[in-house]
From TrEMBL:
NCBIfam families: RNA_bind_YhbY (TIGR00253). Transmembrane segments: none annotated. Pfam families: CRS1_YhbY. The keyword RNA-binding applies. This is Ribosome assembly RNA-binding protein YhbY. InterPro entries: RNA-binding_CRM (IPR001890), RNA-binding_domain (IPR051925), RNA-binding_YhbY (IPR017924), YhbY-like_sf (IPR035920). Keywords: RNA-binding. It comes from the Bacteria. PROSITE patterns: CRM (PS51295). Gene3D superfamilies: YhbY-like. SMART domains: CRS1_YhbY. Residues 1-96 form the CRM domain.
Amino acid sequence: MLTGKQKRFLRSKAHHLNAIFQVGKGGTNENMIEQLKEALEARELIKVSVLQNCEYDKDEVAAAITKGTKAHLVQVIGNTIVLYKESKENATLVLPR
């Protein structure tokens, strides 16, 4: 689990990022989860946008993504989900203790 201090740090880093994935009408699927895993490995911190036509609640989408990718949910703000997962090979973010 992330501490409050670590979440604040990650939120500040994510502020300038653009959402690189969009969840639409069909919600999430295995293919999307795999792509998210790859993106998290490459970037560590990503934003996912939940579109208006999505059949699922943004919190349900966030839960499904975090479970599938085993990433940490940093924040759900508006229709944007911020995720963090430490990279095995490309670790660049150093979290505060």
